[in-house]
Amino acid sequence: MRLQRPQLPSPDQKDKFGNDLVFKVKQIFGTVIDQLNNLSEGHVAAATNASTAPPTTGTYQQGDFVRNSTPSELGTAGSKYVITGWLCTAAGTPGTWVSCRSLTGN
Questions:
Q1: Exposed, middle or buried, 76 (CB in 10 Å: 0-12/13-18/19+)?
Q2: pLDDT tens digits, residue range 17-74?
Q3: Strand pairing of 81-90 and 73-74?
Q4: Which of 1, 43, 66, 82 ranks highest by number of CB atoms within 10 Å?
């Protein structure tokens, strides 16, 4: 289900503060709604933890997951796969990470 942008009341045209406030609130709501819609539809661009490699800095807990923002098919014929992301298997700084692979059937 996609979220729709809310209909906010329009202040009096002479009320500069009210107009500026409504404009800014619409901007913020729009950004949040776009992010939620993209996340619910599985768009990687909406994930704030997407990366091109497992983390090398920062503290992570066992079970944390970082999505691969640049997936591509790897491997040799008959056993090709895509790295969908990395899973933290031991907490730490930066933790121990294993790649999560999905076979492509190629």
A1: exposed
A2: 988 999 999 999 988 888 888 878 777 666 678 899 999 999 999 999 999 999 999 9
A3: antiparallel
A4: 66
Domain match, 95 and 61 both: yes
Q: Can you give the pTM of this predicted structure?
A: 0.63
Length of the chain: 106
CA–CA distances in Å: residue 76 to residues 72, 80, 98, 103, 106: 13, 6, 20, 11, 9
Which residue range forms the structural domain that includes residue 10?
1-46
Does an H or E element contain 74, and which? strand 73-74
d(CA 83, CA 104): 10
Cα–Cα distance, 54 to 13 (Å, whole number): 51
